[in-house]
Structures are given as structure tokens and as C-alpha cells.
């Protein structure tokens, strides 16, 4: 019995074997990324914002691997990349607002003098 592409069973087994190898490689890369994230958390960069930026950079690479390979976005159309890019843009904006609100000098911490 053949699949929808007209290939026989041998090609299907080869395709599955190749996909499994890819998934195992990506899983290994995610594990290495996790170890790098943990190790980077112990490096004193001098500014906590740099530590956060490094952690977010590593997390972004790992998110690309998950979205690209496990969610099969690596082979999708430009529209999906546009949606993914917009999501990343708004996520970065929300992270910026979170970090900004933690600053003691931000307007959110302003306490007016009420008589």
C-alpha cells in the first residue's frame, strides 16, 4: 500500500527515521540550551538587566527551535512567520514594560504629596 505521494513503504520508513533523528537533535539542542541558561544565571554581568537579556536571548533561540521544528513552522508560509514575528514583537514590548515598571524611578512608583 502506498501513501499519498506514491512512495512505497521503504521511503516512508526512511522519512520517519530522518524525522526522528531531527527531533532527537533538536531535543538535545534544547537540553544544551537549558544547561547554558542555568550556567549563564551564575555569571555576574554587573547589571541584572543584562542577565535578563541573556536569559531571554537563549529562551528566544529555544523558542525558535520548538516553533520551527516541533510545530513545523520552519516549512510554512510567510504569513505564519509574520504572525510569529508580531507575537515576538509584542512579547518583547510586554517584557520591556515589565522591566520598566520595576525601576524605582518609573512613573508607576510616583506617590503624590497629598496634604
Task: List its traits.
115 residues; 3 helices; mainly alpha
The helix/strand class is mainly alpha
- Domain count: 1
Q: What general form does the structure show?
A: elongated
Assembly type of the chains comes to: single chain
Work out the number of β strands. Answer: 0
Ends: how far apart?
85 Å
Low-confidence stretches: none
Percent in helix: over 70%
Q: What value does the average pLDDT take?
A: 82
Q: Major β-sheet, in short?
A: none
- Helix run count: 3
Element order, helices and strands?
Answer: HHH
How many whole angstroms does the radius of gyration measure?
Answer: 22 Å
| Proportion of strand residues | under 5%
Written account of the structure:
The protein is mainly alpha-helical. It has one domain (9-103). The protein contains three helices and no strands. It has helices spanning 9-41, 48-70, 78-102. α1 runs antiparallel to α2. The chain is elongated, with a radius of gyration of 22 Å.
Summarize the structure.
By secondary structure, the protein is an all-alpha fold. It has helices spanning 9-41, 48-70, 78-102.
Q: Helices and strands in order, then pairings?
A:
Blueprint: H1 9-41, H2 48-70, H3 78-102
